Amino acid sequence: MQWHLLSKYSLALHGAGPIFLALSVFTLAVVGKFSKNYLDHERGVLRYWMLFTLFSLGIILCAVAGNLETFFIGWEMVGLASFFLIGFYQTNVRSLENSLIALANYKMCDIFFVLAIFFEEAKQHELAGLSLIIATLGKSAQFPFSSWLYRALEGPTPSSTVFYGGLSLHLGAFLLIQHASLWDSVPSLRIFLGLIGFTSAIYGLLVGSSRSDVKTSFAFASISQVGLIFMEIALGWHSFALWHIVGHNVLRTWNYLRSASFFEDFFREEHHGRSDLLGSLFKRLPTSIYFHAFNGFYLDRLFILIRNASLVFFGGTSVFFVIKHLWHGTFHWEYLILFLSTLLAIYEFAVPRVKMKQQIVFLILSQVLVLSSIHLFYIDLIEETYLISSFIFLGGVIYALWPALKIWIGEGAHAGDIYLGQAAIRPRRHLLYLACCISLTASPGSLQFFLQETLFDDLWNRSHTFMILALVCLTLNSYHFFRLGQQAFLGGFVTDGKMKRAT
Amino acid sequence: MQSIDLTEQAERKSDLQTIEDVINSFRPLLPIQNPMPFFVHNNPLMYWERYSFREGLEKAVLTYENAIEVKTRVIWRDLEDFVIPLVISYFDQGLNRWIVPSKKKGLWDWYCEYIKTSWSLKSKALPPLKKDLERLTTQSPVEVIAMCLSRMAIRKEDWANHLQALIFHFKGWSGMIQVLECNPKVFPIQKYDILLMDWVAMLITAEEALRQKKQLSGQRIWDFNRLPRRKETINKRIEKIRRSEIEFYRKTISQVHSHIVAQEQRRMTERNNSKFAPAVQILFCIDDREESLRRALEKVEPSYETFGTVGFFGVDFLLKRPGHVIFQPQCPPVVTPRKRAEEIVPEGDNAFLNKVRKFIPHLNESRFTPIEPFLSFLFWPFYMVALWLRSFMPTTYSQIRDWLRYDNPMKGHNLIRFIEGYTLSEKADLVRDILGGAGMNIVQSNLVMVLGHAATTTNNPFQKSYGCGACSGQSGFANAKVFAEFANDPQVRSELKSRGILISDSTLFLACCHDTCSDKVFYAPSSDQRLSDYQEIFIKFGNDMKKALEINASERWRQFRIKSSADSTSRSLDWSQPRPEFGHTGVALSVFGPRWLTQDLDLKRRAFLISYEPENDPGGENLAYDILSALPVCANINLDYFTSSAFPKVFGAGSKLPLNIASGIGLMHGSKGDLQIGLATQMVDQHEPLRLLAFVFCEANNLQKVIQKSARLQNLINNNWIHLVRIDPKTLDFDVITEELKNAMALTQ
């Protein structure tokens, strides 16, 4: 095994890259100028600019990425910035919860993205293409992963603009155009993509037409248009789709930024009573469809069902994995450890929000176990590898344990009966925790990320299933780390009796 | 057996009566706020004016804060998720393409139909509701409320508390529904049947269903344990405000007093010199933002005489702007408009340009039209250019946009055409009220400028609160034009003579409009012969005005922490600016009296100046008109700012940045949540909460008579919601009328 940490990353302007880069720079300039005045004298401006910069870096990295691995770094940065900006108002519980929903979706995309990279290396084109398409569906909020989009509009208007009106939403479509060779040759994938695009277009149209607040209806209109873009991509009209991305991005940026001027055109003749095709079409539909559309065709619940089903599937796989190796007599202890950590990671979804200590215990156990299983895998390897893997192990434990223990010992501020979180009194500790999270969960930019990527490369060659299980387990844990961080440091959540102490 | 039935029935009936009584008792407590398109400044504490200031404020804060028990907090979010989107969609004012016929049946039936058709997958509340559907549809909302209350095992004596907690958790929507039920006229476009009872029934059924699911039946949702602690903090806050108030009042009163004495002495010496009629007289709005402009203009040219009168100039009508679908009031909300009018753009000769102008608005509103993909495909370079210009060259953008806009209210040549006209005597009455009220019984100057005001802001959902409050937030230009037209009418003038107002034939009234946000003045063109005679005076006035506007612009930002004198005028064009101007920030004073009282006194844009001349008004009719039309408006504006800045979390709308427009009626944060009431943080963050201090320069018995006329005014003054100081016209003594202020002044002296 060789450690060439940066060798597989490359930057190159190719394909649709230059146009997307120009578009990104334009949109970022306009929205940046807008934000400058808009967030003037607002609490948390610095945080906003930090996240905006992170997003800009990510989106530009995506535009100039030479290959999938590099694209993934930008992709992750965009996701992370998005998560933090949805939860920009840290005392608003709803925006924190919605940011978690978006994060869950992004993490799902990440798993498929990484799988696509590995399948591609293994020359399994069908699987690589399918994984890539699923990853883009989540990022671009296409059917059936659409329900998070309108929930994500909790941040300040310019951040909603640049993420869900503009660039971030089109990142999936751009990825498909940029790496068309991965899936283009498989006809069934193209049909699948086209069908998904068509369904999303209709879905966005129906649901958006029944929702009646400005930003939500923009969100569904975007889903509808991105659906059209996906259809164009499926048909093979790539440059057409690219210009559609440009047009839609510019239009939606305009719409979102001026969404506050709704009342300016509210009484205009053009706004009311114009005869149009859709209005008369809708009139013929029965009312029941209206209500189903209003309920978003139950995609919220479907998302949870999919999540639970895949968790069960994932747990089952790990059981099967262990049994198989026992059967064949190729059993290693690390398999059992991985199995345990997997179970813990899954069980954590069932731990209620208020039981913070339980969460901490499970999370740390699970993380330690998964890291040590990877670590054990390398125990028979050469010394250099061993050293580095134990570095990861130790680093992980320290990173995870220290802030977690601090949460356990420390207490947050209270306003009346509402727990305001530790960030209210110890903002620096919150920052430290986030830094640990980012590093421990191998978010791009941290050393752990490059190490983990290399390790996974190696794991992949030894056992596909082991690698996938470890990947999913780590991703689940990273979701839980962010969730726990919100719970402990940010406000508004209800706590159990023990956490509640009078200030 | 039968007798038991009968007693049961009687008990049931009394239960229903109790619930109705309880809900009706909450009605006056709910926030009174119109839908955003008809926003007017209002005192959110109108109901509590019957209590003394301190007691009322404390009660109001406690009611609105709505102490809710912790454990059930989880339910509230589920409840919001379930109920809020439903009510938003029900009240849709034209955001949707999809209009459902069954909305016409009323909220309750619509809700029942929703439960019937939806699958229980959607929410945890739905399965129990679907089970109960038959009972929901057959019973009336009140019966449903009684059923839910008894099912949740809530004791009868706790019903009021429970309903209060529920209603005030959703205070924004409850208040809005209450307003819409009582006054369906304020529905912007589409009217829907709505009853507060339906809304409460909807809330309580959903709550009961969620509790069943979470097995929380019987738990209280309110909690009075926090009350004493809360009361303490509220009282501390009020006490702090009062201390700063008293200091300010003391300083202001002594300042005004010494100034008036000095002015009186100067007048005594000047009285011997014979006085000429001024060349130009200017009728301003009473608005506090015009105070600095008046001061600046008098400084530039001391011979100009300025007057303050209510900015709708007595012309109460509904106006339809060019290209709009509805009529909007051009008078204060307390006045019922009598006439209707249309604003007409003189036809341009370029037919193609007109077509382009008509097409432009389509580019902004394209959601869910089949043309949207084509728009984004064909017109994206236009959007791109627009984005760039609007962000980086806002001045150029706004010039282009003004050129392409056909309904710019600031354009001078737009005509006002009445659909139902005023009669001659109505016109004369209206002009008399304004001129008499301002003390202009004899008008001999060459030009009388009628200066309305407006605020051009862009991308601002609170636009109406920046406009002229006396014109319901619209631009006052239309009213100025109509008033000038009436006052120029020779027939009206001859009619006015019998009403005691003399206007010389050589006098010309001209309409103009001050944009308080960009500090520009727009003039309405006049074809009158006299104007060419006065060309010189007019041009000089224009130049003087320009100088005064420059002084005003630089003064506007002086009092604020935000340093921005250079770009203060360009803020109005900036679409990213959450503070295009500071509106009524700082408003604290109101002066009823002739101009000389406060002339040359720097009131720092904090005062409403209403012209009143006690010499011309022995009977007190003019005083009655002035006070009754202006003082409640001043109090409303002041108390709106007061509450939003003193208790921003309770009465304010929070930050402007994540605001989202719900169903064309109100504003909410993010995708779900209650409607926001009050003013945004960005509008009040420079405001120091102070109650209004009104100086009235008049006879004691006249003032008494006026106060006796209005019950609300009595409440406001007796309970210290505003402070009133009378200045005696003869002795110039200050007579503090409000009890609280009197005591405080006595203590400090």
Structure report:
The complex is a heterodimer of chains A (503) and B (749). Chain A has a two-stranded antiparallel ribbon with strand order 1-2. Chain A is mainly alpha-helical. Chain A has 19 helices and 2 strands. The C terminus of chain A is likely disordered. Chain A starts with 16 loop residues before the first helix and ends in a 14-residue tail after the last helix. With 749 residues, chain B is an alpha/beta fold. Helix content of chain B is 48%, strand content 11%. Chain B has 28 helices and 18 strands. A 5-stranded mixed β-sheet of chain B has the order 2-1-8-10-11. A 5-stranded mixed β-sheet of chain B has the order 13-12-16-17-18. Chain B has a 4-stranded mixed β-sheet with strand order 4-3-5-6, covered by helices on one side. In chain B, a hairpin with a 7-residue loop joins strand 3 and strand 4. In chain B, helix 1 crosses helix 7. The longest helix of chain B has 44 residues. Chain B is globular. The model of chain B has no long low-confidence stretch (mean pLDDT 86). At the A-B interface, helix 1, helix 4, helix 8, helix 9 and helix 10 of A face helix 3, helix 4, helix 13, helix 14 and helix 15 of B.
Spell out the key features of this protein.
A: 503 residues; mainly alpha; B: 749 residues; 5-stranded mixed β-sheet; 28 helices; 48% helix
